[in-house]
Design goal:
Radius of gyration: 25 Å
Strand order of the largest sheet: 1-2-7-6
Order of helices and strands: HHEEEEEEE
Structural class: mainly beta
Distance between the termini: 73 Å
Strand content: 35-45%
Oligomer: single chain
Largest sheet: 4 strands, antiparallel
Length: 148
């Protein structure tokens, strides 16, 4: 996960630039830098448009299957999550010399400017792109109350 030698060996053995904490600093910097680069959950790329009284959300979820996608709608809040597991198939009589697996998750949550009607929403998944059509709910109308 992290490398002990993050600096060239010449810098580590040089008596002039030897700092007793340099190795610890190098290990921490390597670990922290790699953790930030290797996010456990990828951010799905989104496009959100407004058209004909609906919001249309397009999310790229490469490698996902529609069974592994979950969508939650709560008022104006929308959450999309997907899991992708890939594994190479073995054929009978085949000797495996090297095999790779991949496990990835996508997750995005966002708030739309206006609440949507979850019961009338529609979701389609085709060629790795999820398309949500989210009809806007009518804004609550204000009423005046007469004081007696």
């Amino acid at each position: 996960m992290f490398s002990v030698l993050s600096r060239p060996a010449s810098q580590l053995t040089s008596p002039v630039s030897r700092d007793p904490f340099s190795l610890v600093d190098a290990m921490f910097n390597d670990w922290a830098g790699q953790r930030a680069a290797q996010s456990l959950v990828s951010r799905a790329r989104l496009d959100v448009t407004e058209r004909n009284g609906n919001y249309e959300v397009r999310a790229e979820l490469p490698g996902a299957k529609k069974e592994d996608i979950s969508i939650e709608i709560d008022g104006a809040y929308v959450s999309i999550a997907a899991k992708v597991n890939t594994q190479t198939e073995r054929k009978s009589g085949e000797r495996v010399l090297y095999s790779e697996r991949s496990h990835e998750s996508y997750a995005r949550s966002f708030e739309l400017p206006q609440a949507v009607d979850a019961s009338a929403s529609d979701a389609k998944f085709e060629d790795g792109v999820l398309t949500l059509t989210l009809p806007k709910k009518d804004a609550p109308k204000s009423t005046r109350v007469a004081v007696r």
